[in-house]
């Protein structure tokens, strides 16, 4: 999506450096700039939250666990559900829960632009974290 803020020398600073100028120059509306800022924030939050998800679990199948094609991945990995005896179907369900919550969170972050409705985003954020915490608890019990 192009909004006319393309400065290839430092593109991650485009919104911060040139956003207000674009609004004043008529290239962007204030509402659109605010939405782009929320998109950036949703992305950053997703990247920050991904570590907990990776530590909590990963989708897998029995053939993945039995395969030697991944070398030492299954032996050196710190993925709790992979190392424990949490059933594959449970691990996969938790991963689907996380993924769907993350998609809903992104949509809520981008499209909810009022303070009163932002609580929905917070509830979805907690759903993302609850899926990870659930995986960690189940893995700890199974170890």
Give an account of the 3D structure.
- The chain has helices at residues 14-24, 30-56, 62-66, 73-76, 80-83, 88-111, 118-142.
- The longest helix has 27 residues, at 30-56.
- The model is unreliable at 61-78 (pLDDT under 50).
- It has 143 residues and is mostly helical.
- It has seven helices and no strands.
- The chain is 70% helix and 0% strand.
Which ranges are low-confidence, i.e. pLDDT below 50, for 5 or more consecutive residues? 61-78
Judged by helices, strands and strand pairing, the structural class is mainly alpha
Strand content: under 5%
Distance between the termini: 47 Å
- Number of DSSP strands? 0
How much is the radius of gyration in Å?
20 Å
Query: Mean pLDDT, nearest integer?
Result: 78
Major β-sheet annotation = none
What is the string of SSEs from the N terminus onward? Answer: HHHHHHH
> How does the overall form come out from the CA principal axes?
elongated
Tally of DSSP helical segments: 7
**Amount of helix:** 55-70%
